[in-house]
Amino acid sequence: MVKAIRFHETGGPEVLKFEDVEVGDPGPGQARVRHTYIALNFIDIYFRTGRYPLALPEGVGSGLGSDAVGVVEAVGPGVTEVRAGDRVGYLIGPQGAYSQARVLPAEVLIPLPDGIADRTAATLMMKGMTAQYLFRQVYPLHGGETILYHAAAGGVGLIACQWARAMGVTMIGTVSTDEKAALARDSGCTHTIVTSRENIVQRVREITDGKGVPVVYDSVGKDTLEASLDCLQPRGSLVSNGTSSGPVVIDTRLLAAKGSLWVTRPAMVHYIQPRSHMLEMAGELFGHVLAGRIASEPKQVFALAEAAEAHRALESRKTTGSTILVP
């Protein structure tokens, strides 16, 4: 038996329960991983609240989380991707990362380089790979662009700041406080906009001499939608990669009126497959980290049993950078 977070109904953080669960031996194509660190992501809140529905069988409920690092304890028949003793991380697969150990498909496991510690890797799997697919695939940046990025002091945001700097991209980042603005600038964000006292559209137009930006990366959603569209150049692109403030609803006639704009709502699962491509993505990310161009450490650490408190902290928007759970 191991300890794991499970929930039997959707709702607030209080629905998360610390329970005993059985972890058996891995079957064909599977591996059993003993976790060292588990990452907290905003999408976990969507599953907990029911915005993204999960099956909750009576008496069984569901696990939570899809992002963790650890050590392979055993592999099942036919597994060639990893071996027992390998240090690995993952960011896709069945929900259930909020646990001391689990069995999952071996094909989702990514071997970790010797030069990257587990604690660091726990901040990179989902968040670093998100920065990779946003900047290198969804709207590929090549250097020299000026972009707008919302929530620049968040877990993905601080990695994005550093990635933009490494590529020679001028990043305008929105944040909610002056403290977060300083953190984003220290990480490579060229300009910051403190949304509690500054007008996003006005500041972007000032910074770009009235031109606007070719792309906005917006993980906030409902509260920033209008400003995001108004910051774009004609034929610009809105990458709506999250909805922390609420769902986005767009009248397509508005896109024409504001300059024949493009909108995409990407999902990691469509950019990370097949496995060979996932490993290439991870290799690019790890290369930046090993070269010193990207540094990432958790800003908040909670015990696994305190997952509910970690969710409250993340929902309050008082956190910066990455939050991890320790089994």
From TrEMBL:
Keywords, comma-separated and alphabetical: NADP, Oxidoreductase
UniProt keyword Cytoplasm present: no
E.C. code: 1.6.5.5
Pfam family, one: ADH_zinc_N
InterPro entries documented for this protein: ADH-like_C, ADH-like_N, ER, GroES-like_sf, NAD(P)-bd_dom_sf, QOR-like, Quin_OxRdtase/zeta-crystal_CS
Keyword Iron-sulfur set for record: no
Any one GO molecular function term: quinone reductase (NADPH) activity
Record protein name field: NADPH2:quinone reductase
